[in-house]
Amino acid sequence: MFKGIVQGVLLAAALAGASVVPAPAAAAGYPDRPIRWLVPFSAGGGSDLATRIVARHVGDTLGQAVVVENRPGAATIVAAQETVRAAPDGYTVLTAGMSTLALNPWLYGKLPYDPQKDLTPVSTLVSLPIVLVVAPDSSLHTLADVKGYLKRDQPGSYASLGVGSPHHLAMELFLETIQGRATAIPYKGTPPALQDVASGVVPMMMADLAAARPLIQAGRLRAIAVPAARRSSQLPDVPTFAEAGGPAFEAAAWQGVVAPAGTPADVVETLSRAIVQALRSPEVVKQLTLQGMEPTGSSPRAFAGYAREEYERWGAVIRSKRISAD
């Protein structure tokens, strides 16, 4: 389903000169004051940058300031709770992604919010592609080499950004698909993890394309394949897993926008259309693409359906592998 959402709003048409979507008709009297947009991560990261780029355009469209506030902590739970407690009036929204909507309910036994009951989907925002990388001097040159390494009698290892992260789960899904074995080596951040992969301390990693691409282009990492339906426009020479002879599975981190449950439908629709319009702006497309992100954008209903599909898909992996963040 997400492939359709991406294709519908990835904006190739806009870049080719397609007509601009009309400005959204505002709900009666909305907005008449600034909108607060929470980000569950620290300033300067990919989700924060994507939010700030889009928020400026949304503010221009709606004629009100959109104030971005960072509320990091507890695997996005801090920001999610703050959003749930906010008045459902359209003046508080949250950048929410895989962890908030699809992973946390499975990873935590006592999650203090229910993503399907306490939050209202507004629109998808961006997809953050993942790429499988190894050291440039590694003996693993192809996906067949990687599969052979992971299916040895002795378990292999890989760098991970922590229990239940999209990168961790992408590798676990791959391992389950090929019936391989490997131990996750946890890291607190992407830079040190990629550095250890580049130097051969850890054999491989499913990494954010945005973070890995500069190292790949500099020859400090070797890209093996991308877990996607089609090649990345930013790494056109790197095959998909299916093209490389592996399983045809898809895995990517993603972000969307939600509001407190009970937010009026006309307000949600106004916000959704403003976000989609921003994501169809050639300027926004260029800015996000340079950051290694793919603009998406969707109707509230499409986002709700996609989030539910991801909840079920990754829940099956988490249950099968008995993964827990508690």
Automatic annotation (TrEMBL):
Listed InterPro entries: BUG, Bug_dom1
Domain of life: Bacteria
UniProt entry keywords in alphabetical sequence: Signal
N-terminal signal peptide: 1-27
Pfam families documented for this protein: TctC
PANTHER family found in the cross-reference section: BLR1237 PROTEIN, TRICARBOXYLATE-BINDING PROTEIN
Family: Belongs to the UPF0065 (bug) family.
Name this polypeptide is given: Tripartite tricarboxylate transporter substrate binding protein
Organism from which the protein derives: Achromobacter veterisilvae
Lineage, broadest ranks: Bacteria, Pseudomonadati, Pseudomonadota, Betaproteobacteria, Burkholderiales
